[in-house]
Task: inverse folding
């Protein structure tokens, strides 16, 4: 299962990339608005730091402008994936960008039918927002279950990128269902990393080792 970081924070990206667990990045206009600095500098910096796919979102809303913006974003680096919103214009842009050899990620997906259309249009990634569905009382994970089945039935190549992840259990559920990718805010990745019993166990090992050192005058 691939793990992407859902952030535009250079600090967080550097930290987790150094840990070797980050396969790619997703950003969106909201995430970029939370950072200091010029948006273009931030995007270029992320593309430089990360070897895997970096998803950068267009803000244009009509097909031609989306294509033009996508082509501009793609110039930031070979690993750029152009994020396109799930609209009719968006799907037309997906097709046009695909014809130019540019990979896209269709975002703001809230139903399996939307994802099916995005896959048919040629998106490399489809991004269902499961947390936002949970927030309004719909089970977000149902879409993941349906999509894994539908894409398998018909051999669609688009990868299912589980977005709007709210907690580590979402990650486990997505993994059990066979989703290709989860994109996680840095806090969720931090929560996956730790367990109170790990901290407790380590502190016991270290204090016991202190006793060994003292008893044997052993200084390691
Ligand atoms: O990847 C999409 C994600 O950023 C949306 O997450 O938490 O704003 O619903 P959220």
Result:
């Amino acid at each position: 299962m691939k793990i992407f970081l859902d952030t535009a924070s250079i600090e967080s990206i550097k930290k987790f990339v150094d840990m070797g667990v980050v396969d790619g990045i997703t950003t969106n206009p909201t995430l970029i608005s939370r950072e200091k600095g010029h948006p273009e500098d931030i995007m270029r910096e992320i593309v430089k730091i990360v070897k895997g796919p970096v998803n950068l979102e267009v803000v244009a809303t009509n097909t031609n402008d989306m294509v033009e913006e996508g082509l501009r974003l793609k110039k930031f680096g070979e690993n750029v994936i152009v994020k396109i919103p799930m609209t009719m214009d968006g799907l037309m842009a997906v097709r046009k960008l695909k014809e130019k050899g540019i990979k896209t990620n269709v975002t703001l997906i809230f139903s399996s039918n939307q994802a099916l259309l995005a896959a048919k249009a040629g998106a490399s990634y489809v991004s269902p927002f499961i947390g936002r569905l949970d927030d309004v009382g719909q089970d977000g994970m149902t879409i993941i279950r349906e999509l894994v089945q539908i894409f398998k039935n018909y051999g669609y190549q688009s990868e299912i990128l589980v977005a709007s992840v709210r907690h580590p259990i979402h990650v486990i559920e997505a993994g059990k269902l066979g989703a290709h990718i989860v994109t996680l805010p840095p806090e969720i990745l931090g929560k996956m990393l730790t367990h109170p019993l790990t901290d407790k166990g380590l502190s016991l090992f270290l204090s016991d080792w202190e006793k060994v050192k003292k008893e044997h005058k052993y200084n390691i």
Notes: The CA atoms of residues 48 and 77 lie 8 Å apart. The radius of gyration is 21 Å. The chain has one domain: 2-195. The longest strand covers residues 80-85.
